[in-house]
Specification:
- By secondary structure, the chain is α/β, with parallel strands linked by helices.
- The chain folds into three domains: 150 residues; 80 residues, no CATH class; 70 residues.
- 50% of the residues lie in helices and 12% in strands.
- The chain is elongated and about 75 Å long.
C-alpha cells in the first residue's frame, strides 16, 4: 500500500497528469477559461505531518483570466472511508489561505483565490461519506442557519467510473484508471500499448518511468503472483510481457475447453465452438478499441470484420486499431 501511495504521489506531481485529470474528469465550464500552461505545483509545507499522515496532498494552481485558482487534490487509499473527509478538507483549505496571507501572496484588498476541493479515491468499496459539510452538521434553528459554513467536495471514485468515462482517448489519467479497473490481460495490454505510444517523447521520461515503476512493482505483481518482473527495465517490455500473457491466457482457455469437451465426448463440436468464440472475441476487441478512440463504428466495419475468419489477421487489425489515426484510414485497411 505504501508503494501504491508513493506511485500516485509521483503521478499527480506531474502537470500533464493533473491537466488530464481535470480535463477528463472534472469537465466544468470554468476550465474552458483556464491557461494550463500556467499550471504550477504548490508545496503543502504548511500542513503538518500529523495532519496528513493518511493521505498524499497534491496542490496546484493555474490562471483563470489572469487570476489564480487552486486545486487541492487529496489522494485516498484507505480501506475504510473517512466520514469526516469534508471536515479535513475544510481544515486544509483554511491552512492554505492562512499560508497565502502570511507569505504576502494575498495583498491588501485582494480576494482569496477559489479552491477546487477534489478527492481521488480508489478504495474497493463505494464511497458513502457525505460530500457536503452541511450533511454532517445538526440543523441550525432560525437565523442561526445564516451563519453556518458549508463546503462541497468533488469526488472521483475510480472503482465506480463507467466504461464510457474510461474511453482510452489521449488522456493519461483515463488510462491509469482503466488499468486499475481492468479485468484481464487483454485490457491491460491495450492500455499499456497506449502508454508506450503516448509517452515515447523525451519530455515524458519522468512520467514514463513512474508508470513503469507502478506497473512492475505494484500493479502487475498483484495480478500475476509468482511472476518475476525484476528483469523488466522499460515500459515497452511490460507491453511485450502482457502480449505474451494474453496468448498464454487464450491457450489455457482453449485447453481447458478442449479437456471439458473430451470428458463430455463432444471434442469436435467444442473445438469448432472455441474457434468461433476466439474469432468473435477478436472482432469485438477491434470494435472496442475503435469505439473507445473514435466513437461508434459504422455498420460497414462491423460487417467486414464479421466476414474475416483468419484469427491472425484479426489480431493484426486489433494492433492497427490502437495506432491508426482515424476511422477512415481503418476502413481503407479492410478493403
Amino acid at each position: 500500500m505504501a508503494e501504491h501511495d508513493q506511485s500516485y504521489k509521483q503521478f499527480f506531481s506531474n502537470p500533464r497528469m493533473v491537466e488530464d485529470l481535470l480535463r477528463g474528469f472534472v469537465k466544468q465550464d470554468w476550465l474552458e477559461q483556464a491557461d494550463f500552461d500556467t499550471l504550477e505545483r504548490v508545496h503543502a509545507s504548511f500542513v503538518s505531518d500529523k495532519l496528513k499522515k493518511r493521505e498524499n496532498d497534491a496542490i496546484w494552481r493555474l490562471c483563470l483570466k489572469k487570476k489564480w485558482v487552486y486545486v487541492y487534490i487529496l489522494i485516498e487509499f484507505q480501506s475504510t472511508i473517512d466520514r469526516f473527509m469534508v471536515v479535513r478538507m475544510l481544515t486544509y483549505i483554511g491552512l492554505l489561505y492562512q499560508d497565502l496571507i502570511k507569505s504576502g501572496k494575498i495583498k491588501e484588498g485582494d480576494y482569496l483565490p477559489p479552491v477546487l476541493p477534489l478527492v481521488l479515491y480508489n478504495g474497493r468499496t463505494p464511497w458513502k461519506a457525505p460530500l457536503e459539510l452541511e450533511k454532517l452538521v445538526a440543523p441550525a434553528p432560525g437565523k442561526l442557519k445564516e451563519y453556518q459554513v458549508n463546503l462541497r467536495l468533488l469526488l472521483i471514485d475510480e472503482g465506480r467510473l463507467q466504461a464510457s468515462q474510461l474511453a482510452l482517448e489521449r488522456n493519461l489519467a483515463s488510462v491509469l484508471f482503466a488499468l486499475e479497473n481492468s479485468r484481464d490481460p487483454q485490457e491491460m495490454e491495450r492500455a499499456v500499448s497506449l502508454l508506450v505510444d503516448w509517452l515515447a517523447e523525451p519530455d515524458f521520461n519522468e512520467l514514463r518511468r513512474a508508470f513503469f515503476e507502478w506497473l512492475s512493482r505494484v500493479f502487475l505483481p498483484v495480478h500475476f503472483p509468482g511472476v518475476d518482473f525484476s528483469k523488466i527495465d522499460e515500459l515497452s517490455e511490460v507491453k511485450n510481457m502482457l502480449a505474451e500473457r494474453v496468448i498464454e491466457w487464450t491457450e489455457e482457455w482453449k485447453q481447458q475447453g478442449l479437456q471439458q469437451g473430451l470428458q463430455q465426448g463432444r471434442q469436435e463440436g467444442l473445438q469448432e465452438g472455441l474457434q468461433k468464440g476466439i474469432l468473435q472475441s477478436r472482432r469485438e476487441d477491434v470494435l472496442d478499441v475503435l469505439t473507445d478512440r473514435f466513437g461508434a463504428a459504422p455498420q460497414e466495419i462491423t460487417d467486414k470484420l464479421q466476414a474475416i475468419e483468419d484469427p491472425i489477421r484479426l489480431k493484426n487489425l486489433h494492433r492497427k486499431a490502437i495506432q491508426i489515426p482515424s476511422m477512415k484510414e481503418f476502413i481503407e485497411l479492410l478493403k
